[in-house]
Amino acid sequence: MSFTLACGNEPGRGADGGSDGVDSAVVQASEPAASTATTSSDPAKVTVLFFGTSLTAGYGLDPSIAFPQLVAERAAAAGTPIVAVNAGLSGETSAGAVRRIDWVLRQPVDVVVLETGGNDALRALDADSLEANLRKLVARVRALQPGARILLATMEAPPNLGAAYTRRFRGAYSRVAESEGVTLVPFLLDGVAGRPELNQADGVHPNARGERVVAENVWKALGPIVREEHGSRN
Q1: What is the pLDDT of residues 20-64, one digit of tens each?
Q2: Could you give phi then psi for residue 188, rounded to 5 degrees?
Q3: Which end of the chain has fewer CB atoms within 10 angstroms, the N or the C?
Q4: What is the DSSP letter of 49?
Q5: Which listed residue (2, 90, 205, 230) is catalytic?
Q6: At what angle do helices 127-144 and 94-104 cross, to 10 degrees?
């Protein structure tokens, strides 16, 4: 089962939440094709919302090979099936994410994976503002979905922005994760960034091979949480 909702004028889209080539939000709930088809309300499955940018949406690729779907396949293979909801929006900054999060959280979820900040870095936006926005995102998830587990994916700033900026940018994620008590996912593109054979021609977005590496990066942090969620239901 899967569904996709493309929305070019969803609430929260503003001047700093623009597009890098895909002028739509992708909200896709999916299960691996090999699994038994059920509705997304199946209590045996854990619903995981992947909320992020073009990296989550799978920019330039078929959504079936974006990392949220690959994580769903990985979860099914591990015997802990999930419903993966892909809420990636190309070009969005952390400020845009804050404006959009309420709209996306209208449906109940068990786990939220937050991926934002990459576009802040590409625009050299203030790292302190990024940290403030990350805190706001965590607060909104807790206000609207108090039972949801939260993971925060670390992003890195390009080194050409200077050592001080990259240090403050990286530290925003670890500080928020520690003070807010959420699970920190190490650098989302670890093992992919800077490797031409794992990226599309733009050098920014992973290709199909790169997506598999990203999925494993995410699963290392997400897998234990999904197993706990499944265990609590049995």
Answers
A1: 333 344 455 544 332 323 334 566 689 999 999 999 999 999 999
A2: -55, -40
A3: C
A4: E
A5: 205
A6: 10
Q: Could you identify the residue written with the tokens 């979860």?
A: 75
List the one residue out of 96, 99, 107, 95 whose CA is nearest residue 86: 107
Predicted TM-score (pTM) of this structure: 0.86
Question: Please, are residues 153 and 218 in contact by the beta-carbon 8 Å criterion?
Answer: yes
- Are 176 and 139 a contacting pair, CB within 8 Å? no
Which residues make Cβ contacts (< 8 Å) with residue 211, sequence separation at least 6?
A: 58, 61, 65, 66, 67, 70
- Beta-carbon neighbour count of residue 198 at 10 Å? 19
Q: Is 64 a catalytic residue?
A: no
Q: How far apart are CA 176 and CA 166, in angstroms?
A: 16
Amino acid 21: pLDDT: 34
110 catalytic? Reply is no
Catalytic status, residue 205: yes
Give CA 24 to chain center in angstroms.
16
Q: Which residues contact 205 (CB under 8 A, 6 or more apart)?
A: 54, 55, 59, 60, 61, 199
- Residue 11 class from Cβ within 10 Å (0-12 exposed, 13-18 middle, 19+ buried)? exposed
To the nearest 10 degrees (0 to 180), the angle between helices 67-77 and 208-232 is 50
**Which of 41, 128, 179, 202 is labelled catalytic?**
202
